[in-house]
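JOB MANIFEST
job_type = single_chain_structure
chain_count = 1
residues = 263
[input]
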Amino acid sequence: MKGQYSFDNYSSNQEQNRPVPFSDVNELKMLKNKKNIETITLQEWLDNFHTQEDLQTLFINMDIAMKYVHHQGYYINSFALDKIEILNHSLRQVKFDSLEDLPGNFQEDKALIRNNIFYSAVLQIGVYANCLPYFNGEAINFLKHNLDNFSIFLPQEDLSYFKGVIERDASVYYSDYVGERKKRDLANLDREVSEGGNGHGKSLVKTNGTFQASDLVPNNDKENDLIYANLLKKDGAFVRSLIYPILVLTLGLTILLLSYILY
């Protein structure tokens, strides 16, 4: 699947299936009680200047929305910049417009999810390096084998993530990686503070236990529940969702490998 599509009209599947329909004007049911939902495409958002920190924040929230979509039994059929919307000027409100049903077969679902994660990472690299329109076909194959050529444009703390996903086909959600990285950094800082104070320094972790990785990234469940409220739910969606905790557990081990081997 990889390397066959342009981001001008990217599709995760060679066959153009009918997109999952959303209802029209009232689809968000007045997100956050606002009567008029303001939308801007990702292309329009990127037309303005943004810092690297802004982009990282966007990509974390895009990944959280993508994972939410997967959990509902769907995958993203297009990462075209005009098929992704930011609502109400909030990077926590990301809407993917072109979705398809996951087939409900474990191997097929896993391949489609991996493909989504791969192309999401390609999109991120293309935006950071300002070369996304050129990422199609052979260019993506070139990226896969020459990622180091792009490393100067990428956040250094995310290099191991991109190496894992692009070079090694790791199926790791970016937000999960960021949470694990922040958790590790916090633990290292806590240890340094404790050692610097001869063991009497104030701990940076929770008094009732350590932070979980999920505590260190946004929780957008309420936003996504409203944004995707009118997705046509399928009978098998709940059953399919049982797949993902298993996948996430496996991916968590991969994150640790990426963090400690590739750094």
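[summary]
The radius of gyration is 19 Å.
The first strand starts at residue 39 and ends at 41.
exit_status = 0
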